[in-house]
Write a structure and sequence with these properties.
- This protein has 16 helices and 12 strands.
- Strand 7 and strand 8 form a beta hairpin.
- The two termini are about 15 Å apart.
């Protein structure tokens, strides 16, 4: 893989609206690009740039959903919307919807007109000008699949890492939903997902409210993969910013009460999803639930006293071996920190076939 250069990406000439549309056949958007944004003034221009650099022979629309940002994000969105009025459609909320429990990806997708829907949160961006074309062609060639994704370049403070984020196979593949469930989250980069509209049409018939309450990126990945698995393209075409300012990842590391509340809801959602799939994947959901408990114990940003209490309440969920190991961890917490760092490096190298 060639080393990604953010400076080259930012220096690439942006085409005007007429130039972008000149290669299109038809007028109705075939793909709707959904960008969810909140206080992303430092990042949003990279996201928009990645959309506008796409080279396609089909029409696409860009829907930028701003969830009542309090910084300069909205003014930046408006500037691009004025320059690209046919392509960019801003949705500017006056009240923050996420704080009301709204699932942002599903909510924003409700504005889409396309037959396919691509996602990208405002602090990530697309790095390949062929991303939409490649994914669309691949998904069309696999009519049983409803979702397509690829790995991403992972950056920390704008510096690309050596390992790809969410590389799941050597070469293109169709991956089973069980692997996605067991992962417990982050199986696919959100900015890598392309989904058929047929999925949204189908879940619109649900009268339980499950999807409206629960469909974040992880559950999108599960339920889109039930019918025919997930189509994986082994090529990095987006950038994932790790620990971006204001990101969900940053928040769970800094706000203990937020993380605890999220974890409690997540465990309930996993059990509800198991019931929604008629317990066909109970073993996989059990692994995901266990991983959620272990994730809380492994989260060294949480107060050690809280984690000890959490362990005493939930050690039965860890199994005999897990309970014994974690008893030892709390006796030697410094060793645990070193173990986590080593395990993270080994796991990433194993995933990418480097060892």
């Amino acid at each position: 893989m060639d080393k990604f250069s953010i400076s080259s990406f930012r220096q690439a000439r942006l085409p005007g609206e007429n130039e972008i549309m000149s290669s299109w056949t038809g007028s109705k958007p075939l793909v709707s690009v959904i960008c969810t944004v909140f206080n992303h003034e430092r990042y949003i221009e990279d996201a928009i740039r990645g959309f506008l650099l796409q080279k396609t022979g089909f029409p696409f629309e860009i829907i930028i959903h701003d969830d009542a940002s309090t910084d300069k994000t909205r003014s930046l969105i408006s500037r691009y919307a004025e320059a690209y009025p046919t392509i960019i459609r801003p949705i500017l909320q006056d009240e923050n919807q996420y704080s009301k429990g709204v699932m942002m990806l599903l909510h924003a997708a409700g504005y889409a007109k396309g037959d396919y829907i691509a996602f990208c949160e405002g602090d990530d961006y697309w790095s390949s000008e062929d991303k939409l074309r490649i994914q669309l062609e691949a998904l069309r060639a696999q009519p049983d699949c409803e979702i397509c994704f690829h790995p991403a370049v992972k950056t920390i403070k704008e510096v690309p890492g050596d390992l790809l984020f969410c590389r799941r196979a050597k070469g293109d593949a169709i991956l089973d939903v069980g692997a996605i469930i067991r992962c417990g989250g982050s199986f696919m980069p959100t900015a890598a997902m392309l989904i058929r509209r047929s999925f949204f049409d189908r879940i619109a018939l649900d009268d339980t409210g499950f999807y409206k309450r629960n469909l974040d990126a992880y559950f999108f990945q599960i339920f889109c993969s039930l019918a025919g698995g997930a189509l994986y393209i082994d090529r990095p075409m987006s950038v994932y910013r790790s620990f971006a300012e204001g990101s969900w990842t940053e928040r769970i590391l800094q706000d203990q009460s937020f993380y605890i509340g999220w974890l409690s809801k997540h465990l309930l959602r996993l059990r509800e999803a198991d019931a929604m799939t008629n317990h066909r994947y109970t073993e996989d959901f059990s692994v995901a639930i266990k991983r959620s408990y272990l994730s809380a114990l492994n989260n060294i940003s949480l107060d050690i006293g809280f984690r000890r209490d959490f362990y005493s309440k939930h050690r039965q969920e860890l199994g005999f071996l897990g309970a014994v190991l974690w008893y030892g961890v709390f006796q030697l917490p410094q060793v645990h920190v070193l173990f986590l760092r080593l395990r993270s490096v080994i796991n990433e190298k194993l995933k990418q076939g480097l060892i």
